[in-house]
Write a structure and sequence with these properties.
With 570 residues, the chain is α/β, with parallel strands linked by helices. It is built from 20 helices and 14 strands. It has three domains: 35-146 and 186-347, Rossmann fold; 148-184, no CATH class; 372-530, IlvD/EDD C-terminal domain-like (Glucose Oxidase, domain 1, 3-Layer(bba) Sandwich), CATH 3.50.30.80. 34% of the residues lie in helices and 12% in strands. Strand 9, helix 16 (407-413) and strand 10 (426-429) form a beta-alpha-beta unit. The two termini are 26 Å apart. The relative contact order is 0.11. Bound molecules: FE2/S2 (inorganic) cluster (FES). The site of FE2/S2 (inorganic) cluster has 9 residues, from loops.
């Protein structure tokens, strides 16, 4: 059967002539004889430092495609540098996914290799590729090496939160804090904690969408390049065999990803990303699946933010496969990988080499550490918490709310000595949902008031309709749905109301009678935080974005359109 690209390059008519002629800049005539054209979707950018090395990775993929008889084509796509773009990279995850989808569909290609790393890039690549459903395989860019400062490891992300809190508490000088900044980013690669980038790189493999064994390979490790080369070879065979995202990723793949998410202690951001990817494929995945399938799964990986080590240690200790071997009985054997094998078969023969980093199932870091989904009068459509990153004694808690209507309100009042806050208070931050901010920023792990930090308090219950950085930690309830900007119950809470958090029973409530809560108007300031944009992407986003409990995709992007393009205007 002729490849899809032959619709452009085949035939002797004028259109075929034009398509071939413009691609003859270096391509020989036999490039158009029906061999697969593989686009390498590259998110390298100087402004996405975590992905800046992907040009080198792309060359290795291209060599593999050539070796297998395909034509590699570089296709730079919209990239998102998590720490740089304002106001928050999540505002553009769906834009990146939409651009990726459209460029895959519009071009004369038969398959794609997806190069990502920094937080939003792998989710956006998978969402876009899933909606077109041409054969696709991911090369995760990999984590950076471990930095050191004053003789001890310095993790990227988690240690920044810790050190900045130490400065606020007066136990670390601003000068020393500044000195540490040149030590943290030791090499190419993405954040090396079990943050969102590490999590999504590993989960891309569990979803079956990478060459088995590649995920977690540190970015500077030469094995990343040889695996990228192999991926190029694989992409050509995937086209020949018609293996598409819809044939690789099934509901079983997503349930396996939920098990893995718990075992590795992965980022809460994976909840919205996996829901969004599943939505593109029409796979019925819900927020409740995360609790049902993942909450009893033990935490086996001792990595920051839940633990001590970093991604380089995980790779040295045996990597993802050694972790999943411990919970192989919880994985659905029907899920496949891009090679066509069952995913569980790639775990055979793997071994853990450092039992401090990868714990045996018999001695986990935590016995039941998956994401918990809470419901109650404060979150009728759900909220999530990552118990692995929380203080156990706070998982059941009752305390008075201290409410902030926006990030700006928080910054203005948090350190006010007169703020009515005690260690038992519950900090509530609203106006940070998908529409309210807009873009659902990673602010839910709001800092603690200075006067409590100075008194030695290091964790409190915090509640927010935003997200939390995967590198953050604390007793944080996030993704509260519906968000305050929609007038949800979160918008009705007042400072002094008693909040009841009961994670064992999956409850999040405000202790006021239902009729009183119903009668209250949403606080004007909470709803005002949602200043409707009037133009551009932000308007499209706010008008069409869904809530966190369904993946925060744009409503018209859920599902897919396939790879057919019926019209051309030469
Ligand atoms: Fe890119 Fe953390 S900033 S992964």
């Amino acid at each position: 059967m002729a490849p899809r690209s032959a619709q452009w390059y085949g035939g002797d008519d004028r259109d075929g002539y034009i398509h071939r002629a413009w691609m003859r800049r270096g391509l020989p005539a036999d490039a158009f004889d029906g061999r697969p054209h593989i686009a390498i979707l590259n998110t390298a950018s100087d402004l996405t430092p975590c992905n800046a090395h992907l040009n080198e990775v792309s060359r290795s993929v291209a060599n593999g495609v050539h070796q297998a008889g395909g034509i590699p084509l570089d296709l730079p796509v919209l990239s998102l540098g998590e720490t740089l773009v304002r106001p928050t990279a999540m505002l553009w995850r769906n834009m990146a996914a939409m651009a990726i989808e459209e460029m895959i569909r519009a071009n004369p290609i038969d398959g794609v290799v997806l190069l990502g790393g920094c937080d939003k890039t792998i989710p956006a690549l998978l969402m876009g590729a899933a909606s077109v459903d041409l054969p696709a395989v991911v090369v995760p860019g990999g984590p950076m090496l471990t930095g050191t400062f004053r003789g001890v490891p310095l993790g990227c992300g988690t240690d920044v939160w810790r050190l900045s809190e130490e400065v606020r508490a007066g136990t670390l000088s601003a000068t020393e804090f500044r000195k540490s900044e040149s030590s943290m980013i030791r090499s190419r690669g993405h954040c090396n904690t079990m943050g969102t980038a590490s999590t999504m790189g590993l989960l891309a493999e569990v979803l079956g969408m990478t060459l088995p064994g590649i995920a977690g390979t540190p970015a500077p490790d030469s094995r990343l390049l040889s695996s990228a080369h192999e991926t190029g070879v694989l992409a050509v065979s995937m086209v020949a065999e018609g293996r598409r995202p819809s044939t690789v990723m099934s509901r079983a793949s997503f349930l396996n990803a939920i098990v893995a998410l718990a075992a590795i202690g992965g980022s809460t951001n994976a909840v919205v990303h996996l829901l969004a990817i599943a939505g593109r494929l029409g796979i019925p995945l819900t927020q409740d699946d995360f609790d049902r399938v993942g909450s009893e799964v033990p935490l086996l990986v001792d990595l920051q933010p839940a633990g001590r080590f970093l991604m380089e240690d995980l790779f040295r200790a045996g990597g993802l496969h050694a972790v999943l071997r411990e919970v192989a009985d919880l994985l659905d054997p029907s899920a496949l990988t891009v090679t066509g094998e069952p995913f569980v078969s790639v775990l055979d023969g793997t071994e853990a080499y450092d039992r401090e980093v990868i714990r045996p199932r018999s001695a986990p870091l935590q016995p039941a550490a998956g994401i918990a989904v809470l419901y109650g009068n404060l979150a009728p459509d759900g909220a999530v918490i990552k118990p692995a990153a929380a203080t156990p004694s706070l998982l059941t808690h009752r305390g008075p709310a201290v409410v902030f209507d926006s990030i700006e309100d928080l910054h203005a009042r948090l350190d006010d000595p007169s703020l009515p806050v005690t260690p038992d208070s519950v900090l509530v931050l609203r106006g940070c949902g998908p529409r309210g901010y807009p873009g659902m920023p990673e602010v839910s792990n709001l800092p603690l008031p200075a006067k409590l930090l100075e008194a030695g308090v290091r964790d409190m219950v915090r509640i927010c309709d935003g997200r939390m950085s995967g590198t953050a930690y604390g007793t944080v309830v996030l993704h509260v749905t519906p968000e305050a900007a929609l007038g949800g119950p979160l918008a009705k809470v007042r400072t002094g109301d008693i909040i009841v958090l009961d994670v064992p029973n999956r409850r999040l409530d405000v202790d006021i009678p239902a009729d009183e809560l119903n009668a209250r108007e949403p606080a004007a300031e909470a709803v005002k935080a949602f200043a409707a944009p009037t133009r551009g992407w932000e308007k499209l986003y706010v008008d069409t974005v869904g809530q966190a409990n369904t993946g925060a995709d744009l409503d018209f992007l859920v599902g897919g359109s396939g790879d057919a393009v019926s019209r051309e205007s030469h």
